[in-house]
Amino acid sequence: MENYRGHAEIPRFAGFKAPVVVAVVAAAVLLGVVAALCTTHTMPRQALFAQATINRPAVAPARVAAVHALPNLDLEDETPEIVTAKPNPLPAAAAALGAAVPLAATATPLEGLGAEGTPLNSYIKFWIPLVDGALGGNDALIHWLHPVNMGIVLLAMGGYGTYLGFDIRRARLEGTPRTEALAGASHPALMGLMTVLFALGGQGGLLFTLYEGRPLFSSEHSVTGVAGITLLLAQGVLGKVMKVQNSDTLRTAHTVIGSAIMILLLIHAGLGLKLGLSS
Questions:
Q1: What does the angle CA 243 – CA 231 – CA 15 come to, to the nearest 5 degrees?
Q2: Where are the transmembrane segments (predicted)?
Q3: Which residues contact 13 (CB under 8 A, 6 or more apart)?
Q4: Is residue 58 part of a domain?
Q5: What is the rounded CA–CA span in Å between residue 160 and residue 143?
Q6: Is 238 among the domain residues?
Q7: Are 208 and 146 in contact (CB under 8 A)?
Q8: What does the pLDDT look like over 47-76, one tens digit per residue?
Q9: What does residue 2 show for φ and ψ, rounded to 5 degrees?
Q10: 123-176 confidence digits (pLDDT tens)
Q11: H or E element, residue 108
């Protein structure tokens, strides 16, 4: 098929079978990992309940016998003993450490944006009852749904989109315009969709954070998430500008910045996994 200029028309979404395959494989791997994580995450609670149920019949008779063995006390003749609690030095030490290290793991520069009473906090809380009803209060699902979704988006769309970006770079340097045009039609659409999904998924992450009783933007994971989405938006603008100006310098900058963003997002994913396993 030819366009109005007489050149071979290139399908806009040619080559999109590969990301579908990558997405399916990534989803299968991630779901297997998360299934194991969910089992590990819920096992301590189940084990605790089981232990309490097993030990309760054995403990109860001993406790009753101990109560009956107590001597009869005449409370009217006894003067109650006043016990003065000794001061605990740990809170003071923790406060001193917090003053010495203001940006500790529990405080970030963005924490004030999601504080109680802020518009963002109220907006996120509005969705909690709806999501809770949709997920049926499943703790494991609530805890791991966000990382599973975002992991698939990052590995499938981000990974293949990065490959297309380098393919465009290679084709341009080798002088193969058809390959450059094919990849160039898919790369911005794929990375743009990934940015939109990250923005929506980030809101889901904030929702699950409040759902589990943790303050918003209180972790390095949230800070790197905001930085990643902001840089993705700036990267999209840079991609438009470099095409308009046809600047090789801007194309090189776009490649370098895009690679740095992907590294940042991988770090972001690692911090999120660490946060999920520790909470």
A1: 55
A2: 20-43, 148-168, 189-211, 223-241, 253-273
A3: 185, 186, 189
A4: no
A5: 27
A6: yes
A7: yes
A8: 333 333 333 334 344 443 443 454 454 544
A9: -115, 150
A10: 999 999 998 888 887 888 889 999 999 999 999 999 999 999 999 999 988 888
A11: none
